[in-house]
Each structure stands twice: as C-alpha cells, then as structure tokens.
Amino acid sequence: MKHRATPPPTTPFFRPKQLLTLLCLALLGLQARAEEIKSPNGQLTLNFDVQQGGVPTYRLRYKGREVIKTSKLGLELKGSTSLQTGFTQTDKQTRSFDETWTPVWGESKTIRNHYNELAVTLTQPETQRTMRVRFRVFDDGLGFRYEFPRQPKLDYFTIKEERTQFALAGDHKAFWLPGDYDTQEYSTVTSKLSEVRGLMKSAVTGNASQTPFSATGVQTPLMLKSQDGLYINIHEAALIDYSCMHLELDDKTMTLESHLTPDAAGDKGLIQTPANSPWRTVIVSDKAGDILLSKLVLNLNEPTKFKDVSWIKPVKYVGVWWEMITGKGTWSYTNMENIKLDSVDFQKVTPNGTHAANNQRVKQYIDFAAQHGFDAVLVEGWNIGWEDWFGKHKDYVFDFVTPYPDFNVQELNRYAQSKNVRIIMHHETSGSVRNYERHLDTAFQFMNKYGYNAVKTGYVGDIVPLGHHHYDQWVNNHYQYVLEKAAEHKIMVNGHEAVRPTGLARTFPNLIGNEAARGTEYESFGGNNADHTTILPFTRLIGGPMDYTPGIFQTRISTFNPKNNSFVHSTLTRQLALYVTMYSPLQMAADMIEHYNQHLDAFQFIKDVAVDWDDTKVLEAEPGDYITYARKAKGKSSWFVGSTCDENGRTSKIDLSFLDRGKKYVATIYADSPDAHYEKNPQAYQIRKLNVTSKTKLTQLCAPGGGYAISILEAGK
Ligand code: NOJ
Ligand code: CA
C-alpha cells in the first residue's frame, strides 16, 4: 500500500455535514496540521503531518529530491490500543541548536552539532494518551524519536512492534546484512532491494548463535544508493533501554518498517514512562564521502557525564590471539571435555602443550610491544574454563578470576608494567549473561588489583538465560550495565558479539571498541569478501568504531597451520591501509609477532600510525568499490593516508591539498607492487619515500583486493 498525503479539499463549497465536522475539529483543536522544517543550510526539508484517521506521518527531501516519501509513524502495543492512529496534534515546539563539542577521542578534534528541531505533541482523545515525536534536521540528515511523557493513562506499556516506516523513492542499490536477532557476523550483500528476497537464503551463513527472522528483514546501518546518485544511510542512535531495530522490507512498495528484537517472552519492549525511543536516523548526501564524515549519530547521543576522563586513552595493541583463531594454538590448557569448573584441580591435570597464553609466550609479546611502542598486549585463554566453553548453554562457564597454572597473573602484569605496557583483560562470557553479572564486581576488582585498565568482552553462542537474544532490550541493558560498572572501576571496554554501536561512546567514552560485524577472524574461517572493507565504513562504522583487528602480514594461514586452508582476502599493504580506513581508537596489530619480524620495513607504518585524530578527510569513496581517507594525527603535524579497493583493483588519483600550505613533508608510500594480488601475490609490495607539499598530486595503484598506506611527516621533525 502506498501512503500518500491526503490532498487538500479542492472545492470551496462544503456540504453542511462536512462543514459541521470541520467546525468540530477546529473547535477541538483536532485538525490535521502540516509542519515543515529545514536543515540549517536549507538543503533538507522535513514535513510532518497528521493524516486522515489521526495517523502521524513524515517525509524527507534533499535538494528537492525524495529521500523518504510520506511514511507512517507509531507503535503497536500489547494488550492496549495502538499508538498509530486516532491522534491529533496538540502542540508543537521548534528551536535551533548549534554547539561545538570536544570528543574524548575521535576522528576530529571538535564536532559541530547543528540542527533545527521540531517537536510535535500528539494526543489520542479516545485514550487520553500523549506522545511526542521530536525531529532534528541536520545538514547531513535527520534524526527523530518517540517520547512518552509520564502520564496516568500511559505509565507502563509493552511494545508489540514499532511501526516506523521509511518509504523509499525507488528500488535502490542496497548494502545489506540478513536481519538477525543474534549476529551481524555476515558478509554484506550488494543488490537491489527487489533482489533481497531471492538472495536471503544464501546470505544467511552459519554462526554460533543466529536467529534470522524473515525473507526480507535486513539490519542497520543500512546503506543505500539511489539510481540518481543519492547516498542514504538508515540506522539508530542512542540505543538505551530499548530493543535493537531491524528493518523489514516491503519489496512491492520499497517501504522499510522497523522490526524490533523480541525478548524471551516475544515482547519487544517493556516501557515505563517517562521514556524515549532511540533516535531513528537517515543520513543523506549526493556525495558518498559525506556519509563517512557524518557525525549525526554521535550528535544525537547525550554528552558524557563522566567528570574525569583522563583514564580513557586510545590503545594500540598486539595480542596472543591470531594463533588461537587460526587453530595453531588453543585457548584451553588441557584437552579434557565436559568439565565442571569447580570440580577440576588444574594444578593436577595434564596440559595439552598447545595452550598459547603461557608465561613464556606472553612475555615474548610484552617484549615485542615494549620494543615497538605498543600500549598493550591482549591475552585470551588465560582463565580456566575454555575446555568446555560454548555450544552447551552452560550457565557457570567462567569465573573470570582464576588463571590457568601456566599464566602467572601477578608476575606477568608486573613485567608488563615495568616495560610501560598493559595486559588487556579478556572476559569471554559465552553468552552467559547472568553468570557474568554475578561475577562482574569481583572480576573488575581483580583487574584493578593487577593493574588492568581495559577488557575485551565476548558473547559467543546463545544468550543464557535461553530465549533471550543478543540484541533484545534486556541484553542491551546488560551491555550498558557492564559499561557503567567498568567506568566505576576506570576500565575501558571492547565488546565483541554485543549489539552494534549507536554512538553511545559519546555518553560512555570508555566504550572504545565493538565488533558487531564480520571481523578479521573470518579470514581464518573461510574469508571475507575482497570488497568487505570498502563497505564497512558505510555500514557498521556509522554507529561507532570497530575492533576489526587488521595487520595480518602472513595471509596464507596454511604456512603455519597446515590444517587451515583459509586465507586473508587482502594484500599486505591493504592491511596497513585499514589502520586509517577503519577508524577506531583501539587498533590491534593482529598477526603473530614472528610475521612482523619478517617484514619490519612494512611494520614501520603500524608503529607510526596514530590512533587518535585532529582532522579527517575523505579523498575518494564509493561503497563497495574504494575508500581513501587522510587523517591528521592528534596534536601533531603528521598525516596518514589509507586506501582500500575491491577485487578489481584500480588506480587512485589524489592530491595532498589538505597539507599545510608552505610546509614541506616527507611521504613514505607503502603500496602494492604492480603484480600484487590478494590471492595470488599478496606480499608483493614496494616502499618509497618522496618529498611532498600541499601542491603534490599522486597517482597510485591499488592491486585487486589491495590498498596503500602513506605516512606524511613534516620535514625535519
Ligand atoms: C569471538 C571474538 O570475536 C574473538 O575475537 C575471540 O577470540 C573469540 N570469540 C573467543 O572469545
Ligand atoms: Ca566474533
């Protein structure tokens, strides 16, 4: 069904009955009113209208072109009249807002938050309930949310489904993931919206926990491109005490509708007023690069209330990790099966000889980190329980405080700190959320005692208690509880398998990373598509930074584990580019240290590259094809450029006009050799140095599945 604006009456004459109705409506203040606001630069226009039957609708245009056609707003409630119809507009407020704020860490030194706002109050006379819809129109897009003030007739309610529509203007090209209540670890499919249904089955690949829900359900951030070149991104901001939104596509009308993640009872939200929904966001531009530079999602989150943020710092790290992911080593200390945690004395059992998190190996990593200026070493598999850690729906799977006998927690932390390096804690929960919450205080006190200041959390497998989903309201509240508890202990958090970010790091800047997409680990489980990293910045990264774990130099895994034939779908120098193109204040050099020692010339880039930035430019970008960024290091004059392209390869043409005029710089270019190829010849690279200024223009090859990285340092510095 198409939703059209009700045409205004064309005849000047009214029949008596109509006149009476109109009069009544006017008297009661019930008449439909159309509202319009524009973005500060006037290019975006938002219309709001209450249509026949009291149905709230909105519409969004960009430079006069339809982005979202007239679309319905509202929610269906469980056991109660819906909040979809029977509304009258009883109030409206408008305002303009303009502030510039300074993030604790980020892609630029300051961020401008500039919008025009419209808040309409809607009343259902029949039920005496009120809700507000607040719209903020920025130059780069729209955010809107539902607000439910405290009121006698709407104190508690249960959401059956949110019915927010996004009626698209055409059969756009879409970069989509299958809608799923438990995972985002899928390859992105690029297709027309009308092709989603036919491709869904093959798009749903295996995962330790997954619940796809329909033939046309997709996830956000959803990236779209219209035939006439509009780039549109739909996501949400400030997902707090609410369930994660997916989008259900009506492929006849090209209308997307919100689809919330259900909890164990099948409910989609337990709300007590006053309450707000998260913001629904639509970023739009006719330039792809503007989508990458948008700060709309962050701006729609609340400023942090943390008074002291001095303990939150970007982190560059190495880790005892890739050897387990690739199957060369193990997380577990023994080969026992079916263990009960408190009934095994690990001092007395036979070790398997493959346990990677042992004192000697960890010290090698600490030495390497110290030698090359890294902040930290992640160590996974340090604690008891990995023999039997997932797929069993166990409740008590880890205690988070007991190390295996060959991991001396006190000595290793002392050793690391004596070299100015920290060990990153690892808390794999195996999805057993209750168990984690039970141990959380003790686990964080344990971290404080030994001097850990960051934790990587993980939620592999189905959520226990069973029936809950990784993205439902109750579990989202768990992730937030962990963040808040961590902050009390001055601990930074990097959450894997948790809900995808929605800009919450503005409010909780200790959330320095998330996974919530197919990371580098999948290169060891069959591979990521060669265009994967040309898409993620347009999709997953719109919500916040990703712990993508780049930097794999030995892309052929069989060279060190003959049983694993998987390979990394990337050239070596593209792995360098990812430190610039995949923005994160938390960056891992994920390969084993032996592989870095074989390519110390290329490794120099990872040592030099910044993890925090004063400025960011997009030099070229097209989702699915290529992305080239330039970023200025925080508090320094140096710049770093990264470029990644798809399986076809290309020649990139950039100019360095972002450099300070009149200054001289030395550029070091780490690039694919002409015969490089992500599969056939991934380690063929060339490094060259040249003097550059803001007038320099560069033509640079990207091999198929390749990329290049450039460090640009001010001459003489
Ligand atoms: C999945 C995470 O993404 C990965 O980084 C981690 O090593 C394993 N879970 C084990 O926790
Ligand atoms: Ca994962």
Automatic annotation (TrEMBL):
GO molecular function: carbohydrate binding; hydrolase activity
Organism from which the protein derives: Hymenobacter gummosus
The name this protein goes by in its record: Glycoside hydrolase family 97 protein
InterPro entries for this protein: Aldolase_TIM (IPR013785), GH (IPR017853), GH-type_carb-bd (IPR014718), GH97_C (IPR029483), GH97_catalytic (IPR019563), GH97_N (IPR029486), Glycosyl_hydrolase_97 (IPR052720)
Domain of life from the UniProt record: Bacteria
Subunit and interaction comment: Monomer.
Domain Glycosyl-hydrolase 97 catalytic: 321-517
Residue ranges occupied by any Glycosyl-hydrolase 97 N-terminal domain in the UniProt entry: 37-303
SUPFAM superfamilies referenced in this protein's UniProt entry, alphabetically: (Trans)glycosidases
Domain (Glycosyl-hydrolase 97 C-terminal oligomerisation) ranges: 612-712
Signal sequence extent: 1-34
Cofactors required: Ca(2+)
UniProt keyword list: Calcium, Hydrolase, Signal
Pfam families listed in its UniProt record: GH97_C (PF14509), GH97_N (PF14508), Glyco_hydro_97 (PF10566)
